[in-house]
Specification:
Pfam families: DLIC. This is Cytoplasmic dynein 2 light intermediate chain 1. Keywords: Cell projection, Cilium, Cilium biogenesis/degradation, Cytoplasm, Cytoskeleton, Developmental protein, Dynein, Microtubule, Motor protein. Residues 169-189 are annotated as: Disordered. The protein is an alpha/beta fold. The chain has a domain at 56-301 and 309-325: Rossmann fold. Helix content is 36%, strand content 14%. It contains 11 helices and 11 strands. It has helices at 2-15, 21-24, 27-50, 69-76, 149-179, 216-219, 224-240, 253-268, 293-296, 314-325, 372-378; strands at 56-63, 90-98, 105-113, 135-142, 209-214, 244-247, 285-286, 346-347, 352-353, 358-359, 365-366. The protein has a 7-stranded mixed beta sheet with strand order 2-3-1-4-5-6-7, with helices on both faces. Helix 1 packs across helix 3 (27-50) and helix 7 runs antiparallel to helix 10. The termini are far apart.
């Protein structure tokens, strides 16, 4: 190391054209420059070594029930011939991609949460301390159902954010207790670069986020004013969370190809698409960092006094305006059973089954069948029953 530094010092002396070089540069500054040069060379060597090892990233798909998450996943994996099937609860698959000729393939772990909001508690399975530093979230919203759009988005993102923060906090405490603060520095909240538009006015999501508005083929038949409200609202939400936004139509190869490029950026670290489309009459395509509050403008409020809405923050203001146009539905989805194995009680004229199903993460199911009610009701009439031969 000493020899290397000496070589660098001599190199800088020879490069200098000023005969008074020694008088212009202090000894401390010279050693700082030499140390920086060595560090840059070491970093370059580490980067070159990392290029020969595959990377692993995790992409978690959440969103509207029957909103097209599986269809998008299949198109990303180039499985066009496979018919999409309803996702029961939580499904896993993976994709691989080579960075070049004769290089190891990078791996993307792809998780999909089914059931819309009803199974939001399952976010704790794909989000772990082991993958939190390489995790991304894809939120798929059904544009054909605007009345449930905000609630779906809010509940699912809140669940994901809450668990990400919980994992980060737990990992940091564990790292500090074991080997000091340096161990926990690998898990830090997402920070936007200093030139990000409106950086001081927004609240970036804790991990990279992509919002996909599906079923644009149905959405494009909406009234133009309603389309404008939905487009501006989702643009604001995406920008507020530091997310990318795209509208798709499963029948349009052009929109699916652009969505695939944005997902590939999250899954494999490919280059971010640069095309932008903000026309409400066309599918939106806005990569993160390419929109701004000035371009989005204020909420669409034709007959609403913004000052009378008493919003707590800008996001709450947009929510109140949006729900004036598209009131939130009291959907059955929010009250559905959170465990798909659970079923309502089975009743017959003679037998009442009370099924209490408790399913743990180890998939152990305990079923208790109670017949006491039947016995009490029929105790006096056993002899009167006529049995078929």
């Amino acid at each position: 190391m000493v020899v290397t530094w000496c070589f660098i010092i001599v190199h800088y002396f020879l490069k200098s054209t000023s005969p008074h070089f020694l008088f212009h540069v202090s000894v401390n500054t010279l050693w700082d420059v030499a140390a920086a040069e060595v560090r840059n060379r070491d970093d370059a060597e580490d980067t070159e070594e990392d290029a020969h090892f595959p990377t692993e990233r995790t992409v978690f798909f959440i969103g509207s029930k029957a909103g097209g998450k599986t269809t998008i996943l299949l198109r990303i994996l180039d499985s066009r011939d496979e018919a999409p099937k309803p996702t029961l609860a939580l499904e896993y698959t993976y994709g691989r991609r080579a960075r070049g000729h004769n290089t190891p393939k990078d791996v993307a772990h792809l998780w999909e949460l089914g059931g819309g909001m009803s199974l939001s508690d399952l976010v704790q399975i794909p989000i772990t301390a082991e993958n939190i530093s390489t995790l991304s979230v894809v939120l798929v919203l059904d544009l054909s159902k605007p009345n449930s759009l905000w609630e779906t988005m809010e509940r699912l993102l809140d669940s994901a954010r809450s668990h990400v923060e919980k994992v980060c906090s737990s990992a940091q405490k564990t790292g500090e207790s074991r080997s000091g603060k340096q161990q926990s520095q690998n898990i830090v909240p997402r920070v936007l670069h200093k030139d990000y538009p409106d950086r001081e006015l927004i609240s970036p999501f804790t991990v990279p986020l992509l919002i996909i508005g599906s079923k644009f083929d149905i959405f494009q038949d909406f009234d133009s004013e309603k389309r404008k409200v939905i487009c501006k609202t989702l643009r604001f939400v995406a920008h507020f969370y530091g997310a990318s936004l795209i509208f798709t139509n499963s029948k349009s190869e052009a929109t699916m190809s652009k969505a695939r490029s944005l997902v590939n950026q999250l899954a494999f670290g490919t280059e971010r698409p640069k095309s932008v489309s903000t026309d409400p009459s066309k599918p939106l395509v806005i990569p993160a960092g390419l929109d701004s509050l000035s371009q989005i403008g204020p909420p669409v409020t034709s007959d609403v006094d913004i000052g009378a809405l008493h919003a707590k923050n800008p996001l709450d203001l947009w929510k109140k305006v949006f729900e004036r146009v598209f009131p939130s539905e009291n959907t059955k989805e929010s009250t559905e059973l959170k465990d798909p194995a659970k079923r309502p009680p089975i009743t017959t004229p003679y037998i009442y089954f009370s099924l209490e199903i408790k399913q743990s993460l180890s998939n152990e199911i305990h079923i208790t069948v109670e017949l006491e009610q039947y016995k009490r009701q029929q105790a006096k009439s056993w002899k009167s029953l006529t049995l078929e031969p």
